[in-house]
Amino acid sequence: MTAVDGVQRTLQVALGERSYPIHIGTGLLGKAELLTPYLAGQQVMVVTNEAIAPLYLDKLCATLPDHLEVRTLVLPDGEQYKSIEQVSRIWDALLEAGFNRRCTLVALGGGVIGDMVGYAAAAYQRGVAFIQVPTTLLSQVDSSVGGKTGVNHPLGKNMIGAFWQPKAVLVDIDTLTTLPARELSAGLAEVIKYGLIRDTAFLDWLEVHMSALLAVAPDVIADAIAQSCQIKADIVAEDETEQGVRALLNLGHTFGHAIEAHQGYGNWLHGEAVGAGMAMAATLSQALGWISTADQARSLALIESANLPTHAPANMTSDDFLARMRLDKKNIDARLRLVLLESLGNACVSDAVPASQLKNLIDCYPRR
Amino acid sequence: MTAVDGVQRTLQVALGERSYPIHIGTGLLGKAELLTPYLAGQQVMVVTNEAIAPLYLDKLCATLPDHLEVRTLVLPDGEQYKSIEQVSRIWDALLEAGFNRRCTLVALGGGVIGDMVGYAAAAYQRGVAFIQVPTTLLSQVDSSVGGKTGVNHPLGKNMIGAFWQPKAVLVDIDTLTTLPARELSAGLAEVIKYGLIRDTAFLDWLEVHMSALLAVAPDVIADAIAQSCQIKADIVAEDETEQGVRALLNLGHTFGHAIEAHQGYGNWLHGEAVGAGMAMAATLSQALGWISTADQARSLALIESANLPTHAPANMTSDDFLARMRLDKKNIDARLRLVLLESLGNACVSDAVPASQLKNLIDCYPRR
Asked: Long-range contacts made by residues B296-304, C-beta under 8 angstroms, separation at least 24?
């Protein structure tokens, strides 16, 4: 589906003077020529978490040329640490090291590290360079593309942040060999999302290759990542700051963010909540008569084949959902806006669903 | 020097799609037609401090149409509160009120309030609208123009922030009638700066009108504000993100920031530290043979005529200065960069001064 150049593929995110490459392949962590062209100056800080540091930090640092001033910072692991307090630790470390505005931050880890380091870079001295080295499937196909950075607030996910583009993204698929199965599935939720919102051929392909994806077959996973990044890059190039089409990338996320926030960040993985959220969005789209019962069933079957939940949490009422969903960033003034499926492979943003109908659907939705 | 339209003048900051007007005049706080066109939606939060709230908060809120959802937040007053913790209080209030990304923040107060509210707006849901209503001379001529927002860190001033432009700036010069004399002088430091870096005719004018400025004569102060904003707006339009000429606006600020940080924020007012810093920069420029002894003396006399210090703090060594100055955002890698005077009315950025010469000058500089 995409051209294969040995073990390495390169996409370009087209954003004018903020354009950047995404390199996907095996063994990329050891390739200095993919990192050093994107460093702004001599000062480099690699930020990672406690789970990733023992696996990949030394390898990445060994790849950086000796003449650079390299510092490292290891943060705790988990969505519950995606907070302004942890970002402040990055700022403290940068200032204690005397790093200036030509320094470069390198985010080595999953989406939490990428979002926090990106935001730390956006705000440090009003903006410094950063490079994404995502190590989870979810961050490889989603959060490392498009420049959304930020942290959670106790009252809402990703409520504080900035649009800030990386100078480059390095996706080393070797890192997936150490990824827990549950996190692999969570990443597949976003992969499935791209098919549902924009690409029925990709949906067909995913149905055929799901077992190979779950087994992390290198060629297949590289194809899935490249196709996902391409779809996201195309959408981001069209609409960098989410005035329009970019909102479609939030399929399943309005329900999903409500689940995550209610259950406590880290108890449901982001991708698991998105899986359930996409199932709820597909079910609502069918209830509105937009997609057929067969297409709704096909969507849920694909989500389940990736070992993702399609049910809502047992302890979450429709009011719990609606209270959280009212805080969603897509809303304009008092109206709830949802991403729904007009047909498989074709999503839209709608504020046409009355709150009463939405409440009714959530009340009837399967719990576990 | 600028066209007068009754009691009101309007400048435009030319930044393409981010262009915005600066309205300067008397009675502007009561003019709804200058505020409402710039509101993004129905939700408005006015943020001010404890000193300004009793004076102007009710008046501003009464100007906003009844159909809007208006909230207010009052923060403590002072540079020592320009912190990420206070910005977090703004984010907390926005989320508790359920404000979405079409809300508008209004910054009513001096530079501390303007910088914090601007930064809160830049990061809330990755960016919402804000309006500046500066109430000190310093914020009217400086911090409300140009989109620099941010907070201090214990290790450096304005180290965390964003470039984020307001939708409009309302300068009501009536607010200067309640401004303490010391803060009026602090604002005049930035006014003098514009003359020193860019406009000898303005320097001549300031020497003639200094007593009228200190007496807050309305026409004279309005002229000074308009000319200052115009010079700053021209420079910002040339160089929004400080890649070049905008750095000249930092005349006196590298020394000044070092003084503020060493003395503890709030003990020396920002403008006082800039006054002393400009005197040091002029003295260094003379020592380098760039400006004459007469021009150095003229610069210091103008600064002193505004009741500003030209001495350095008695308890601050050259090492204290240099340690803080090394953290300055203008530095590139290890080189100290300073804004100096090539001639009166013509500043430049230089990294040509050896650290030893700089240390020697600071050692010999008058203390009090």
From this structure: B298/B344, B299/B196, B299/B341, B299/B344, B302/B192, B302/B195, B302/B203, B302/B206, B302/B207, B302/B210, B303/B189, B303/B192, B303/B275, B303/B278, B303/B279
